[in-house]
């Protein structure tokens, strides 16, 4: 992604450390933070400095490499894996990436492990970009078809939720990648961006990303999406954190409501998802839904009119709070899954991908 004339990745290697964009400070400040220790990597994932399923996976992969550089013993490998795995429970990409790196090094002599882990993490980062480009191609072709079927209107309205863009991956994104490519190729997409409470990944990150790329968008509160779907939206397009073999989609809280409203209004609901997010082992009721801190709901964080950062309380301090970070949209509400191999019905996607990374 280009920002201020320079191409950035959401995570970049710098010797035996990585630079990540501090997503907690966006959109007000664009700052790269250096992660050089295992603990700093775990903290960055836990505290949403980095977030989004594919980026969580790649960051954790680099975390293992960092740990093995300072201690390449079996114990160190096990401890690092356990620590990183516990950072966030829902995105499939985390365990998938950790497994990819640890199986690349487990049978090596300790002195060969760190280099091999760095190489494996680098390979995952490169593969993420290649995968997202494929998702962009398949997704943008689908958007072009929608646009042409509608007689090439002056504007193709697409709704999205959370942030499934460049910031959620190493580059490009999943759902937003399709929108970037469609826009670049002349499809006049306009994106309705749900703010995505409680942490506002839509308002803070998706709005910022789309603006930086020059894609027209309008931000709205989450509760407005049902209304909007009654008034001219051509499609919904979101990402995912975990997808079952049956095609049930676990994604940011609020996705299920969007899918229900889309179904009620006959609007296609598309999910753009790399094979690393598919989980063949799980059924939808068994997906662990992360419960996040209450202060994400009772408070909001942002910049005041004087330009200073401030956290303000919007609910009684002692309000009992539930804060599930994800929900599961049943496959029956999903029109199609856009994968790096092509566009599939929810039920056939996993088998079409077998033999690739997700299996
Ligand atoms: O809590 P987050 O910000 O990590 O949640 C991210 C999402 O739910 C994204 O939609 C999902 O990871 C898909 S990203 C390509």
Instruction: Return the average pLDDT rounded to an integer.
Output: 96
Bound molecules: 5-S-methyl-1-O-phosphono-5-thio-D-ribulose
Low-confidence stretches: none
User: Roughly how much helix do the residues carry, as a percent range?
Assistant: 25-40%
How many β-strands, per DSSP? Answer: 18
Radius of gyration: 20 Å
Strand residue content: 15-25%
Figure out the total of helices: 11
Could you give a short description of this structure?
This protein is α/β, with parallel strands linked by helices and 359 residues long. It has helices spanning 38-46, 53-70, 74-85, 92-105, 110-149, 175-184, 201-213, 225-229, 255-264, 295-298, 346-353; strands spanning 2-3, 6-7, 11-14, 17-21, 32-35, 156-160, 189-194, 217-220, 235-238, 242-244, 249-252, 269-272, 278-279, 299-303, 309-313, 326-329, 336-339, 342-344. The mean pLDDT is 96.
Summarize the structure in words.
- By secondary structure, the chain is an alpha/beta fold.
- Helix content is 40%, strand content 19%.
- It contains eleven helices and 18 strands.
- It has helices at 38-46, 53-70, 74-85, 92-105, 110-149, 175-184, 201-213, 225-229, 255-264, 295-298, 346-353, and strands at 2-3, 6-7, 11-14, 17-21, 32-35, 156-160, 189-194, 217-220, 235-238, 242-244, 249-252, 269-272, 278-279, 299-303, 309-313, 326-329, 336-339, 342-344.
- The strands form five sheets. A seven-stranded mixed sheet has the order 8-7-6-9-12-17-18, sandwiched between helices. It has a four-stranded mixed sheet with strand order 13-10-11-16, with helices on one face. A three-stranded antiparallel sheet has the order 3-4-5, with helices on one face.
- Helix 3 runs antiparallel to helix 4 and helix 4 (92-105) runs antiparallel to helix 5.
- The longest helix is centred in the middle third of the chain and has 40 residues, at 110-149.
- Bound molecules: 5-S-methyl-1-O-phosphono-5-thio-D-ribulose.
- The site of 5-S-methyl-1-O-phosphono-5-thio-D-ribulose (MRU) has 17 residues, from helix 2 and strand 11.
């Amino acid at each position: 992604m280009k920002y201020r004339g320079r191409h950035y990745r959401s995570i970049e290697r710098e010797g035996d450390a990585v630079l990540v964009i501090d997503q907690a400070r966006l959109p007000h400040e664009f700052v790269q933070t250096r992660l050089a220790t295992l603990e700093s990597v775990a903290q960055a994932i836990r505290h949403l400095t980095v977030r989004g399923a594919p980026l969580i996976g790649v960051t954790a992969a680099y975390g293992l490499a960092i740990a093995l550089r300072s201690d390449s013993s079996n114990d160190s490998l096990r401890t690092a894996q356990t620590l990183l795995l516990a950072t966030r429970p829902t995105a499939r990409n985390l365990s998938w990436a950790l497994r990819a790196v640890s199986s690349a090094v487990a049978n090596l002599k300790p002195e060969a492990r760190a280099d091999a882990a760095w190489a494996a993490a680098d390979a995952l980062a490169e593969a993420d970009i290649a995968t997202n480009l494929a998702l962009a191609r398949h997704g943008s072709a689908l958007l072009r078809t929608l646009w042409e079927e509608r007689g090439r209107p002056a504007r193709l309205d697409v709704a999205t939720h959370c942030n499934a863009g460049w910031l959620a991956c190493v580059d490009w994104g999943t759902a937003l990648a399709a929108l970037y490519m469609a826009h670049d190729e002349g499809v006049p997409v306009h994106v309705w961006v749900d703010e995505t409470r409680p942490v506002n990944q839509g308002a803070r990150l998706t709005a910022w990303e789309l603006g930086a790329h020059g894609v027209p968008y309008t931000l709205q509160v989450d509760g407005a999406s049902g209304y909007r779907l009654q008034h001219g939206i051509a499609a919904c397009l979101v990402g995912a954190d975990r997808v079952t073999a049956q095609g049930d989609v676990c994604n940011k809280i609020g996705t299920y409501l969007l899918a229900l409203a889309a179904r009620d209004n006959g609007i296609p609901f598309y999910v753009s998802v790399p094979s690393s997010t598919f989980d063949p082992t799980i059924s939808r009721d068994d997906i662990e839904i992360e419960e996040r801190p209450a202060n994400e709901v009772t408070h909001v964080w942002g910049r005041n009119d004087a330009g200073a950062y401030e956290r303000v309380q919007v609910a009684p301090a002692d309000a009992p709070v539930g804060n599930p970070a994800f929900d599961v949209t049943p496959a029956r509400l999903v029109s199609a899954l856009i994968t790096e191999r092509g566009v599939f019905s929810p039920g056939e996607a996993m088998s079409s991908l077998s033999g690739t990374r997700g299996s």
